[in-house]
Specification:
Number of domains: 2
CATH architecture of the largest domain: 3-Layer(aba) Sandwich
Number of strands: 14
Radius of gyration: 22 Å
Distance between the termini: 50 Å
Helix content: 40-55%
Structural class: alpha/beta
CATH topology of the largest domain: Aspartate Aminotransferase, domain 2
CATH class of the largest domain: Alpha Beta
Number of helices: 14
Strand content: 5-15%
Shape: globular
CATH superfamily of the largest domain: Type I PLP-dependent aspartate aminotransferase-like (Major domain)
Order of helices and strands: HEHHHEHEHEEHEHEEEHHHEEHHEEEH
């Protein structure tokens, strides 16, 4: 080629949740069986979709319109339904059908959201942070990430003073992004924290990006609270989807609520750009959109939400109690949402000399080469995968300096989950003593 093609920001695209899979597959080819605890796919992990939801989808397939294009913004009746539901939230911002915009999954929405922000503007986001957000922010401007810390010893909550100072002394910040409930930590932002973040956005003329894909999975005393319920007059984008709710991750069906889009001419122009960008793709997939009113509007859905939240509460508490009681050198806190569990290592317990026993010489050589120059938590994960066959995601893969890892609470078999925890815990104990 006569010139370079890709722009410099491409080097910031990292998605360790999937990248670790390549390493796992390489180990499998060397004969190491792998237990996958890295990807948040409830169906692949063994959760069965409720028969009544399957029936709704089967019946929709018989309607020829589900095989056709839909309006670029999304199926009209579905947008009307979602706007009505959003507007009925206590204290919430009023939402109209044209404030709803569908995408092929939340990741597609995130890509558009960050791409359409001016190159030199910045979005402040948490550390650790979901890599789809941080990677797309880094791709646009090729700048170091601008982040505020989530603190593991404070239930993974932020320091509000730090957030305001990051905004105040970085005038190029135009938005604050959060994931609530959070991925990877499983923390839920309490009402006072959300209100304080909204107050900072109002004071400095920012908008908020709130990824609420796990909003229907809150437990352990956490309140299910949408950003629209504390927003007042502040502009925001709320990101929603069905991948974790039905669950139907393979549908790639998500949408954004454009909240208070007339509160600012700048924000209105930005929202219009999101709509025009969607029109360039014609539309998002029709069938999953058409299923939404039938599933969410079914009286059985409330019971399904409660049942799944209770299920993940029980599983996450099992994980918390195991690490709290049996694995020194780690920091854990009870989870309040989603279906992940985040384990942080105490400062100073990891070093670049620690290892785990690996009997196969070929596997050992492969691992020793793979850990050259990597972060200390990734080094541990690579050794554990080769020695014990458990795949988790290094926490530094979520754009943070905190060392640790994320695992899921998706395995429906309690006994298997307990054995997996024992394998992880035993690996940590042996690794720290090596």
């Amino acid at each position: 080629m006569r010139t370079k093609i890709a722009h410099d920001g491409i080097k910031n695209l990292h998605y360790e949740i999937r990248e670790i899979v390549d390493y796992g597959h390489a180990l499998q080819k060397l004969g190491v069986p792998i237990t996958w605890e890295n990807i948040g796919d409830p169906v692949a992990a063994g959760e069965h979709v409720a028969p009544w939801i399957k029936e709704i989808v089967r019946n929709l397939q018989n309607d020829d319109s589900t095989w056709a294009y839909c309006p670029s913004r999304g199926v009209s009746k579905t947008r009307e339904f979602l706007a009505r539901v959003a507007s009925e939230r206590p204290g919430g911002v009023k939402v109209g059908p044209d404030d709803i915009l569908f995408f092929n999954g939340i990741a597609d929405a995130v890509d558009k959201i960050y791409d359409l922000i001016q190159k030199d503007n910045r979005v402040l986001m948490p550390s650790p942070s979901y890599p789809t957000h941080t990677s797309n922010e880094g791709k646009r401007g090729d700048y170091p990430h601008l982040q505020f810390q989530l603190y593991p010893k404070n239930n993974w909550q932020p320091d509000l003073e730090e957030i305001e100072n990051k905004v105040k002394y970085n005038p190029q910040v135009v938005a604050i992004a959060i994931v609530n409930p959070d991925n990877p930590t499983g923390a839920v932002y309490p009402r006072k924290t959300l209100e304080a973040i909204v107050a900072i956005a109002r004071k400095y003329g920012l908008f908020i990006i709130c990824d609420e894909i796990y909003a229907h999975l809150c437990y352990n005393g956490a309140e299910t609270l949408h950003i629209s319920q504390v927003l007042g007059d502040v502009p925001a984008l709320s990101l929603r989807g069905i991948s974790k709710d039905f669950p139907w991750p393979g549908s790639r069906c998500g949408w954004i609520e454009m909240l208070n889009r007339d509160s600012s001419a700048f924000f209105r122009e930005y929202c219009d750009a999101l709509v025009k960008s969607k029109m360039m793709e014609v539309c998002s997939t029709t069938l999953p959109q058409m299923a939404i009113p039938a599933v969410y509007g079914d009286p059985r859905y409330a019971a399904l939400k409660a049942e799944r939240s209770a299920m993940f509460e029980r599983r996450s508490n099992q994980v918390f109690e195991y690490f709290r009681d049996h694995v020194p050198g780690t920091i854990v806190r009870p989870v309040q949402g989603a279906f992940y569990f985040c384990v942080a290592f105490e400062d100073g317990v990891l070093n670049d000399r620690q290892t785990l026993p690996i009997a196969d010489p070929a596997v050992k050589a492969f691992v020793e080469k793979s850990v050259e120059g990597v972060a200390l938590d990734k080094r541990f994960v690579h050794y554990m995968m080769a020695s014990e066959g458990v795949c988790v995601t290094p926490l530094t893969g979520f754009h943070t300096d905190i060392l640790g890892f994320r695992l899921t609470t998706l395995n429906p078999d309690d006994a298997k989950r307990a054995r997996t925890l024992e394998r992880i815990g035993d690996s940590i104990r042996r690794y720290l003593k090596s």
